[in-house]
Amino acid sequence: MRPQSATPSPALSAPTGEEADPRDRRGRRHRLGCIILICLCAVLCGARSLTAIGQWAHNAPQHTLTRLGARITHPELGVRTAPSAATIRRVLTSLDPAALNRMSTAADLAVLIIDGKSVRGSRTRRSQAVHLLAAMTPTGQVAAQIRVADKTSEIPALQDVLAGMDIEGTVISADALHTQTDTAQHLVKERKAHYLLTVKRNQPTLFNQVKALPWRQAPALFTEASRGHGRQERRTVKVLTAPRIAFPYACQVVRVHRWVKEVATGRVRRTYAYVITSLSAEQAGAARLAGLVRGHWRIEALHHVRDVSFGPGYSAELGGPTPDSTKGAPTCKDVTV
């Protein structure tokens, strides 16, 4: 694989993350920040496995290694040497993915979108597919990500993925799986955050309460239209206060009516989505709530980029003993996103 010119990512070039280096200080020849930058650049240039990343590093020209801060091995000649494929593999397999995420996370976390995903290509004959739970910003940056343990659920993992971050005042947006009273209590009471949770039939009592609200009498507070991908779409948002909703700290309920017309066939689809939030009317009006609801699609966009643009997970390609053997690799792809 022929390397292309690479410029260090501003998000990683300043904080090197050496405090997160899992290696013993004795014998370190290459800085952790340099190794990570090489991995990210290799992935952006098409590397799909740790072997390919090692090849990219080996073939990188001197001017690229200089920009990435590679180790100088011949000071009199100014020659720099890239870390070997074995070093890259050893670092990535021992690096805590959460530490890598923290190195690239913006300080401002006004909104975090939570969702889970099974990584394509990570299932083997001896192990289940790797299931990840990610917290990302509306701009698409992965703020934190953990692997959900086998035979467990995403529900308790939500608290783990947010651990270690200051989320006071942050709006946590999650799908219907996380619409749980314990989750709401944890976010608002313990973490001083806000929630924006989808309401579906997995919580039948809450769903029936929300659906039975006087939506016909409620005015349409916000409407937006869009056209693209062969369809016309119109979204109408109604918002009601939630004084009698039996859910912790609920302040408002949102109903989004989606009208979608397929241009080619003329087929029309109408759907309703319900969302409950701890944000008061003073904190979030209809327009902001509509934007928060719409922003949740970015998690699916992240999954599409990871699986389609960058290819399936690394584990199947490498044939490692377990999906954990390449635990740093999916995070490298997420940081490049």
From TrEMBL:
The keyword Transmembrane applies. Residues 110-304 form the Transposase IS4-like domain. It comes from the Bacteria. One of its GO terms (biological process) is DNA transposition. The chain crosses the membrane at residues 32-57. GO terms for molecular function: DNA binding; transposase activity. Residues 21-103 form the H repeat-associated protein N-terminal domain. Residues 1-25, 316-337 are annotated as: Disordered. Pfam families: DDE_Tnp_1 (PF01609), DDE_Tnp_1_assoc (PF13808). NCBIfam families: transpos_ISAs1. This is Putative transposase YbfD/YdcC. It comes from Nocardiopsis metallicus.
